């Protein structure tokens, strides 16, 4: 059982790290797990400063920083608000209790966005971190998300021990399970459903300059995610100047895209003729040259009304001279989800079986397009080594999750040749 809350006269409420004020009695200066010997490698005197020191290491990686901050913030707030003890006093038993809490954050009104109205059911609407309605959670975490949170917190605790701030890692005693790769990916669009999405995009209105610009952007974004197999963060983090052309051994000129991706790894993605045609179409819709110049800093996808040299539209925080600011991951996700919702509604309007298929589209996200691309390539018997390299996978084991056709063939052969014949 977790240690009961300490007797403190201060009532704390969950707040973002940047505005959180921790009472001296709970700030961790005298935490039970603080290191007492040796020389500390960080100047942090309390838990909040120690977490900030850890997060500072990821300041140049926005996606990683956001993910790590979220998990550290949630644990710190739970320790302070639910247990009434410093993070540097957490025990192994506390950490186990926290994992159960992640599966059902209660009371919902305290922890979950929209929890007052929905009693924690479902997922609440996101609010800015400075909004009074902000909460650390949007709903219960899935088993996979709980495992991911535990991995991140283990990294935090291990680093704080290494830095001489904590005496030990309370998560280190947890039973380590070997991670198993799922036998087949399931979050993908079979070819018929993918065609419905393309048809829905083709039917988008183009009767005004703004909606026409939105159509061209959507078509190009889905082309990048599918033909290029890019992750959503890679769309926002790379530029058109990373396209380049070179001659192959037969003298044919071929285009490539250098992608700086997950884990700071770089890979070369084949820019097929179809992909380059769509790039030219998108650029010309913006009044740009058909092909990018070397080292051009134009984002792969631009806000509406913005070209490489314009200042017509600036995201929040941009300045008049900031003409190459990309769309955020959240904005790109919103575009993709709205297209899936639009395609789902078209299916629902038809009724019957199509209405049932709409439910799958409503669950889809941008990453489904990457999975769909890998699955469709494997189904068409593209060499798995090529799929691996296009997607930046470390091994063929990861890539083999896309082999749906092999499953179908195995089922067909078993059905036809393995019979009891009563």
From TrEMBL:
Residues 45-161 form the Core-binding (CB) domain. Signal peptide: none annotated. It comes from the Bacteria. The keyword Cell division applies. Pfam families: Phage_integrase. Residues 184-415 form the Tyr recombinase domain. Keywords: Cell cycle, Cell division, Chromosome partition, Cytoplasm, DNA integration, DNA recombination, DNA-binding. It is found in: Cytoplasm. This is Tyrosine-type recombinase/integrase. It comes from Paraburkholderia azotifigens.
């Amino acid at each position: 059982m977790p240690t009961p809350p300490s007797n403190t006269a201060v009532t704390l409420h969950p707040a973002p790290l940047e505005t959180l004020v921790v009472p001296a009695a709970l700030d961790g200066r005298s935490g039970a797990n603080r290191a007492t010997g040796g020389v500390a490698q960080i100047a942090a005197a309390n838990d909040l400063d120690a977490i900030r020191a850890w997060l500072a290491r990821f300041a140049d990686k926005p996606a990683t920083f956001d993910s790590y901050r979220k998990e550290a913030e949630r644990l710190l707030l739970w320790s302070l608000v639910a247990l009434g003890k410093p993070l540097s006093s957490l025990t192994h038993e506390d950490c186990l209790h926290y994992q159960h809490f992640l599966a059902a954050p209660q009371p919902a009104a305290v922890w979950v966005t929209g929890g007052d109205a929905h009693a924690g059911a479902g997922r609440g609407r996101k609010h800015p971190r400075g909004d009074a309605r902000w909460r650390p959670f949007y709903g219960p975490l899935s088993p996979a998300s709980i495992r991911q949170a535990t991995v991140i917190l283990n990294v935090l605790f291990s680093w704080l021990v290494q830095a001489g701030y904590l005496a030990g890692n309370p998560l280190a005693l947890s039973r380590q399970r070997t991670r198993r790769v799922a036998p087949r990916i399931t979050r993908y669009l079979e070819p018929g459903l993918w065609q419905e999405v393309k048809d829905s995009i083709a039917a988008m209105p183009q009767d005004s300059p703004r909606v026409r610009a939105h159509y061209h952007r959507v078509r190009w974004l889905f082309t990048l995610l599918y033909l290029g197999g890019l992750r959503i963060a890679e769309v926002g983090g790379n530029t058109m100047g990373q396209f380049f052309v070179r001659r192959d051994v037969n003298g044919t000129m071929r285009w490539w895209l250098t992608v700086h991706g997950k884990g700071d790894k770089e890979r070369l993605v084949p820019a097929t003729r179809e992909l380059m045609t769509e790039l030219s179409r998108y650029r010309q819709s913006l009044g740009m040259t058909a092909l990018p110049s070397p080292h051009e800093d134009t984002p792969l996808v631009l806000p509406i009304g913005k070209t490489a040299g314009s200042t017509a539209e600036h995201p929040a925080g941009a300045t008049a001279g900031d003409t190459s600011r990309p769309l955020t991951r959240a904005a790109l996700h919103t575009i993709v989800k709205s297209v899936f919702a639009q395609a789902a509604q078209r299916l629902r309007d038809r009724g019957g079986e199509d209405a049932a298929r709409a439910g799958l589209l409503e669950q889809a996200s941008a990453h489904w397009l990457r999975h769909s691309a890998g699955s469709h390539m494997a189904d068409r018997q593209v060499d798995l080594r090529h799929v691996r390299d296009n997607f930046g996978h470390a091994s063929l084991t990861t890539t083999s999750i896309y082999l749906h056709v092999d499953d179908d063939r195995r089922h067909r052969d078993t059905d036809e040749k393995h019979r009891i014949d009563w």
